Predict the structure.
Amino acid sequence: MNAIILSIGNELTSGQTVDTNSAYLARRVAEFGIRPLAHWTVGDGRREIADALARASSSAEVVIVSGGLGPTADDQTRQAVAEALGCELELDERCLAGIEEFFRARGRVMGAANRIQAMAPRGAELLENKVGTAPGLYARIGDAAVFVVPGVPSEMEWMFEHQIAPRLSRNEGVIIHRTIHTFGAGESDVGTRILDLMQRTGPVLVGTTVAAGMVSIRIISRGKTSEQAQAQSEDVAGEVKRRLGELVVGEGAVSMAAATGELLRERRQTLATAESCTGGLLGQMITSAPGASDYYVGGVISYANRVKEQLLGVGAEAIASHGAVSEEVAAAMAQGARTLLASDWAISITGVAGPGGGSTEKPVGLVWMALAGPEGTKTSKTLWGGTREIIRLRASLNALNMLRLELRNQ
């Protein structure tokens, strides 16, 4: 069984709003053994929506539509469903009473425009929405089961769990998704190491994606039972991890910061930071992981040279001789932060993030990092391309990875 997911709204097609509904719906239908064929984004035009519904219902057994069920003139999804079915909208008095009660319970009077939300194409079923004013719709278009839900993510998710999921007959089989995140090698290198696993044959599909400086391996396993699908997934994931070794950061929602933080927590050790060109991004990344207070003591944003000198104890002569972006200054920053904040480990970053400020000797993208720890200080030099934001992100990830590898190999 296959599914096509439609997201409705000019705010989506114009790029003003990012479509997160399709990702959620694709993951959920896959748990029923239903394979998502496509995600389509359609504007608010009634004819465009009706055409998309006709095409989707002729290509998939399940079609899920989110958005366009509001009370304003640009909400045209219910009218488009009626057009696709070749019928008129009809008022459902019971549904209207429910919407009126929704407003009354909140001390408000229902506006006349909301009346449209109690209307449905003849023959379609209205689906109760207990967390909003817009009911959903269920209809058959050709051989396809078509579900229509509000576009508000919280309402969409509630509608799926309480109205769509109970109506989806379980397809023969189960699909399990998992993602393994890596750092330290490019996508082509990672792909070469797992090339034979990426051949699109058999019950397990393997692919790669790149986002936020990390290469992720996607594993999709289909089995007749959840146990079979899980066992197949474990086998392939185990082989991926074996081949990629220390490149593997974690799985699922585990970030670089969370993976590194867990290693610190296991060892009951603490971390401090000293940042220049990243301006606090490294500290923000570390504290984005829940429980970071267990190991992160704080940091110094030493953007100006005098702050490097006064707070971190970096010698003025080191800055004068080697420059603020140098191995010597990076090492002194890390050592100074470790001493100042009395931590087991300290990471420092200093570089040229651009777009200006570079030179022949020290071009934009040059970053020096240092890691000070119980057994001394290590430094690393990188030269990143890209925008200021990309350079800062990669520098922060690379600095954290220095610590992750050091902890992992202890």
